[in-house]
Write a structure and sequence with these properties.
- This protein has 367 residues and is an alpha/beta fold.
- It is 32% helix and 18% strand.
- The protein has two domains: 59 residues, DNA polymerase, domain 1 (Orthogonal Bundle), CATH 1.10.150; 288 residues, TIM Barrel (Alpha-Beta Barrel).
- The protein contains eleven helices and 14 strands.
- Helix 4 crosses helix 5.
- The longest helix has 18 residues.
- The chain starts with 8 loop residues before the first strand and ends in an 8-residue tail after the last helix.
- The C terminus is likely disordered.
- It binds S-adenosyl-L-homocysteine and iron/sulfur cluster.
């Protein structure tokens, strides 16, 4: 085995081909790479010392040449509705979060909502994560580790061979298309042969509208895309989502039209309802006009109020009236129920350090 003098390589972020090249450089046989890949991505091992089928000598050589950046579960907050918010510590001391939502869909599917960045740079005025600003991108291995660690934790309690996670949504902290390369790499690892082989149909990437990477995502992967539209005029969208000042609604919808998709699939448009801002009948009618030519569904998300934002959630009859206008005009429009509210796990509530400080609450200690 050769000594390696280069920078350590993040082993958990490598594709099988890259792992093969890496182990060959160490003077090992290519099948070693398959063993490692299966252990990491098939069995979800996130530490080298959990990998049992390699010799001590090879392990020592690997740990000299490579690194496993080691995300750890820091706390698990269990909501009364079964939702769990996982807090993880990164190797350099940052906190990120994922949310496990059991029975998230009518078919009883379990969903995990994962983070793609520590904080977020996009500055949406209704979102708690925005208040953290961006600290750094997550690596591909930190993105997939969220899933592997949650699966491991669930397995301790749920003695079942059935799939623990059916859907993966990139809707936690961060803007996935601002961390494009690592997000795409993580998707390739999650869907890879010899890994867990998640179906890309069950993976959704949500974006606030980083237009330059929308079509690119469709070309590089087969995942589902969700667009956080949240307004029907540029004036309102400019105010609540600064990204609109760079790529306005017309540019965003043009990219959505060009998004490559199989015939039966649909784009999801997310629409956070903010009382008195974007929830009028006129907004609903404009939304129908904007989306008329799309195969799409609309997810209406009544705003989850928090102390870092001045907005209010509309009354339930306003939410229903808004939905009614869309449905009367033959659009699929769903109201997303809030899950995990009691542990600040609902949409837009991640990044709870500032949130907890603002609430003056102690139980969720982060960072
Ligand atoms: N950055 C990506 C994904 C993470 S945000 C994006 O913006 O799409 C996931 C979803 O939560 C987005 O649709 C966003 O509009 C919504 N959201 C953010 N803050 C919210 C809040 N306080 N209440 C309800 N939904 C919120
Ligand atoms: Fe970032 Fe999405 Fe929150 Fe906007 S809504 S600040 S893009 S996480």
């Amino acid at each position: 085995m050769k000594a390696v003098t280069q920078q350590p390589i993040d082993l958990l972020a490598l594709t099988l081909d890259e792992l093969k090249a890496f182990v060959c450089e160490l003077g090992e046989k290519p099948y070693r790479a398959l063993q490692l890949f299966q252990a990491f991505h098939g069995q979800g091992k996130t530490h080298l010392d959990q990998v049992s089928n390699i010799s001590r000598e090879f392990r020592a050589c690997l740990s000299e040449a490579g690194l496993m950046p080691g995300l750890e579960i820091d706390a698990v907050h269990k909501s009364s509705d079964g939702t769990r918010k996982y807090q993880f510590k990164t190797h350099d001391g940052h906190t990120i979060e994922s949310v496990y939502i059991p029975n998230a869909s009518a078919e009883g599917r379990n969903t995990i909502c994962i983070s793609s960045q520590v904080g977020c740079a996009m500055g949406c005025t209704f979102c708690a994560t925005a208040a953290m600003n961006l600290t750094r991108h997550l690596t591909a291995s930190e993105i997939v580790s969220q899933i592997y660690l949650v699966q491991h934790d669930l397995r301790q309690e749920i003695a079942s061979d059935s799939r623990l996670l059916h859907n993966i949504v990139y809707m936690g902290m961060g803007e996935p298309l601002h961390n494009y390369d690592n997000v795409v790499r993580s998707i390739k690892l999650l869907t890879a042969e010899h890994g867990q082989q998640f179906s890309s149909r069950r993976i959704t990437v949500s974006t606030s509208g980083v237009v330059k990477n929308i079509v690119r995502l469709g070309n590089d992967t087969d995942v589902h895309i969700a667009i956080s539209l949240n307004a029907t005029t540029n004036d309102v969208r400019n105010d609540i989502m600064p990204v609109n000042q760079k790529w306005d609604i017309a540019a965003l919808l043009e990219a959505c039209k060009a998004f490559p998709m199989e015939a039966r699939r649909r784009i999801t448009f997310e629409y956070v309802l903010l009382a008195g801002i974007n929830d009028s009948d006129d907004d609903a009618k404009r939304l129908v006009k904007l989306l008329r030519d799309f195969r799409c569904k609309v997810n209406l998300i009544p705003f989850n109020a928090h102390p870092l934002s001045p907005f209010k959630r509309p009354e339930q009859d306003r939410v229903l009236a808004f939905q009614g206008i869309l449905q009367d005009r033959h659009m699929s429009a769903f109201i997303r129920t809030t899950r995990g509210d009691d542990v600040d796990a609902a949409c837009g509530m991640l990044g709870a350090k500032k949130l907890a400080d603002a609430r003056g609450s102690l139980p969720i200690i982060m960072g």
